[in-house]
Write a structure and sequence with these properties.
Elements: H1 5-29, E1 34-39, E2 53-59, H2 63-68, H3 70-75, E3 80-83, E4 97-103, H4 112-122, E5 123-134, H5 140-156, H6 166-171, E6 176-183, E7 188-194
Parallel strand pairs: 1-2, 1-4, 2-3, 4-5
Antiparallel strand pairs: 5-7, 6-7
């Protein structure tokens, strides 16, 4: 299933990307600057949007996802180095990055609290942390449905948690949340924060 998921992911995301995700992703990623760390680059959907950055160091634990991204890496306008590793154990020195980008990935990270600690460790003071994530909804019925579906969903979708409260995790991690924008009645959020270490 792990090898099939990247193909299913790209196929499922195509209509969503064409609808509105593309605009959300591009608007967020184009705010990146300097040296960039991308968490969980997946099939490389963000790579074409990077512009005024020095380089991107991109991590992805799933080798099947990485293979799916090869064409997008070759077409990118900026240098991209990829690493097969997890967000909880980043292979970078302290204070390395000016921007960290994470899109539709925090739902799958097994230990998001540790990942956020690692992101802060490798970020320079004042670094931008740019996220686009689906989260548990405030509406009770929808939220309860997400909780009920999560065990099966995790098995089918590479560990994805439908019921994760990523905004709460970010706000309680020590990052300074500057801006939150809601999409699709709160199912998706962009979260712009800063490292204030």
């Amino acid at each position: 299933m792990a090898g099939l998921f990247p193909h299913l992911y790209d196929t499922a995301m195509q209509p969503l990307e064409k609808m509105r995700f593309e605009k959300i992703r591009s608007g967020l990623v184009r705010k990146a600057e300097g040296r960039v760390l991308e968490i969980g680059f997946g099939t490389g959907a963000n790579f074409r949007y990077y512009r005024n950055v020095e380089r991107v160091d991109a991590i992805e634990p799933n080798p099947a996802m990485s293979r799916q991204a090869i064409k997008r890496i070759k077409k990118a306008q900026i240098p991209i180095a990829t690493y097969q590793t997890t967000a909880e154990n980043l292979p970078f020195a302290d204070n390395s990055f000016d921007t960290v980008v994470a899109t539709l990935v925090f739902c799958t990270i097994p230990n998001p609290e540790q990942a956020l600690r690692e992101i802060q460790r490798v970020s320079k003071p004042g670094a931008k942390i740019l996220m686009f994530e689906h989260v548990i909804m405030d509406q009770k019925i929808f939220g309860k449905t997400q909780v009920a579906l999560t065990p099966l969903w995790k098995k089918l979708c590479d560990g994805c948690h439908l019921d994760r409260d990523t905004l709460w995790l970010v706000a309680n991690s020590g990052l300074k949340v500057d801006k939150v924008t809601s999409y699709y009645k709160g199912l998706f959020l962009t979260i712009e924060s800063r490292c204030i270490q």
